[in-house]
Design goal:
heterodimer; A: 115 residues; alpha/beta; five-stranded parallel β-sheet; 5 strands; 42% helix; B: 477 residues; alpha+beta; Beta-Lactamase; Heat Shock Protein 90; five-stranded antiparallel β-sheet; 11 helices; 26% strand; rod-shaped
Chain lengths: 115, 477
């Protein structure tokens, strides 16, 4: 693993939950409720994967992906399906994860992918 | 004899002129001719063979007196009509001396009578064949003459209707007030209607009709002449139109809901993700008291949020388009609607300004009003999408005895040429498949039905749609 797993979601409570779950699983993790701050972080720091919410006030998850400076596994997290086709057509999207999701299953999957 | 003012000639037994009147000379173009002893028909217009036969028959009979109307072809073309009378001429002893021949040209009278008959026939034809019901009745309502179209409307045969039925027998009692009004009008102006009522048909069913009429006088007596139109088909179409409109409202509501669904799914799945996330943490083992307290608080908040969304959604989707409008606070309806929709604006960086200081009670179906607002907000959203600094503003304002809801935006506005068109059904400026083109037309009809109006306010400095709704009495705050 080259760096932390980054989580981006405008919902602060979900960022907090990400920290609690991934921290508890001994995985290096960083969460951001502001996508611009996350992009700035990605400019500076190599990361091993990005999990990003789709619907955010400042930009969508796919807009975030387009501006992402690193080519790492990208998980698009979402509560609705309205953009599903667009996401599936994007080769850089590793997987679309629907809310609510199982943290344990996601952690296991990322561990397998990154080890 | 000469001076008699009638065209008369006296012929002897060999049909030669014995005497004749000046009027005869004039009638036969023989003015001033010396005819005595000359055979009838030798000069002047040719005498048809049939007439010579008739004259000879008369000479052979002991008595004769025939009178008939005979057509006679004119030399220059056309036909003259002559009244002809032939009678026997005897001396006082009874000896046959010849015949009286009376020939009067009555072409003009015959023509006039024929034209009159034709016109009467034509009027009869109009009466009989007209698809509009026609009827003549006495002032007391007794029907005297009905045309087939009218008999068809009331379902009675002519034998039972004319002279047997009265207007009042077929008028349902619930039209008493309207009838009194029409009678007053008839007395004052000589005319009544047009107005709409029903007749009770022979089979007991009611038929909707539109009728009007006027007073006519015949032989010193007054009658009422009426024209009656069966409007069942029109009524059926109107009912069908109402049905279709309700369906269209539902369909467009579904379309709006479809757009909403994505946002709503997000709004509900976020709190669910929070609840799930904490539950999964708590299941991992002995939680610290701090974590337990945090989890309880966040789970509580999240479920409140989800419940609120569901409540708002239910208010909008409730299928009560037939229910009677209820007095509600306008701003409450606006807030419920924004609860669902404002997220979309936030998500796409469109500033949603609210100026809801003015509130008042309006009598509406909340879900329909929400639909109107959603439609206007949705249009505004699409109009500013992609602008550098997009904003949409929703403000309420007092407008006389009405309350206004103004939705304005930072977009370019509606070009003057399209200002009327945009309210037409199926007119859309959105890409194919993106808009139904029904939104504004349905919104306008919803607002109109509530006694309000929906229009573009061209005076406003930015693109602005204004909904006006009448305020409930004394309810303004």
């Amino acid at each position: 693993m080259n760096g932390p797993i980054v989580y981006v979601d405008d919902e602060p409570t979900l960022c907090r939950l990400f920290d609690l779950h991934f921290g508890g699983a001994q995985l290096p993790a960083r969460s951001f409720s502001d996508p611009e701050a996350a992009l700035a972080f990605l400019d500076e720091t190599p990361v091993s994967a990005v999990l990003c919410d789709y619907r955010m006030p400042a930009m969508t998850g796919l807009e975030f992906l387009a501006r992402m400076p690193q080519d790492v596994p990208f998980y698009l997290i979402t509560g609705d399906h309205s953009f599903r086709e667009e996401a599936d057509a994007n080769p850089r999207v590793t997987q679309v994860v629907e809310k609510p999701f199982e943290y344990d299953a996601l952690i296991a999957e990322l561990r397998a992918l990154l080890d | 004899m000469r001076g008699l003012p009638i065209p008369l000639a006296l012929l002897d037994t060999r049909l030669r002129y014995v005497a004749w009147s000046e009027a005869w000379e004039q009638a036969h173009d023989l003015v001033g001719a010396e005819l005595e002893g000359e055979a009838y028909g030798e000069r002047g217009p040719a005498v048809p063979e049939e007439e010579l036969h008739a004259l000879r028959r008369c000479l052979q009979a002991t008595t004769c007196d025939s009178q008939d109307l005979v057509p006679r072809r004119r030399p220059q073309g056309g036909v003259d009509y002559l009244r002809r009378r032939i009678s026997a001429w005897h001396d006082p002893e009874g000896t046959r001396l010849g015949v009286y021949l009376y020939l009067e040209r009555i072409t003009e009278e015959v023509e006039t009578r024929r034209q009159l008959r034709e016109r009467e026939g034509f009027i009869d034809l109009l009466f009989e064949r007209s698809s509009v019901g026609m009827n003549l009745c006495r002032l007391d309502g007794l029907w005297l003459e009905s045309n087939p179209a009218f008999l068809e409307i009331i379902g009675y045969p002519r034998a039972e209707a004319d002279g047997g039925l009265t207007y009042w027998q077929l008028t349902p009692p619930d039209y008493e007030a309207e009838e009194a009004e029409q009678i007053a009008q008839l007395q004052a102006t000589g005319r009544y209607g047009p107005y709409e009522k029903e007749f009770i048909r022979k089979d007991g069913t009611r038929v909707p009709v539109r009728l009007h009429g006027f007073l006519v006088e015949r032989n010193g007596e007054q009658f009422i002449w009426s024209l009656i139109e069966d409007i069942s088909e029109r009524r059926r179409l109107e009912a069908q139109y109402r049905e279709e409109r309700i369906k269209a409202i539902k369909t467009s509501k579904l379309a709006v809901l479809g757009e909403l669904a994505a946002g709503v799914a997000h709004e509900i799945n976020n709190p669910l993700a929070i609840i799930e996330g904490y539950v999964q943490l708590l299941r991992q083992g002995e939680p610290s008291p701090e974590l337990l307290a945090e989890a309880l608080e966040k789970i509580g908040e999240a479920s409140d949020r989800a419940a609120k969304i569901v409540r708002s959604l239910r208010k909008i989707a409730r299928e009560d388009s037939r229910a009677a409008p209820q007095p509600v606070s306008l701003c409450a309806v606006i807030r419920d609607t924004l609860e669902l929709y404002s997220r979309r604006f936030r998500t796409h960086g469109v500033e949603l300004r609210r100026a809801l200081e003015v509130d008042g009670e309006v009598c509406v179906r909340a879900n329909e009003l929400s639909q109107v607002l959603l439609n206007l907000l949705n249009n505004a959203y699409h109009a500013v999408e992609g602008d550098a600094q997009p904003w949409v503003e929703l403000r309420t304002e007092r407008r006389g005895s009405a309350i206004g809801i103004r939705v304005s935006d930072s977009g370019a506005g509606v070009p003057p040429a399209l200002r009327e068109k945009i309210f037409d059904p199926f007119f859309t400026t959105k890409e194919v498949g993106k808009g139904t083109g029904l939104g504004l037309s349905i919104s306008q009809s919803i607002v109109t039905e509530l006694g309000g109006s929906l229009a573009i306010d061209a005076e406003w400095p930015s693109c602005s749609f204004l909904v006006e709704l009448p305020l409930e009495q004394g309810a303004s705050k």
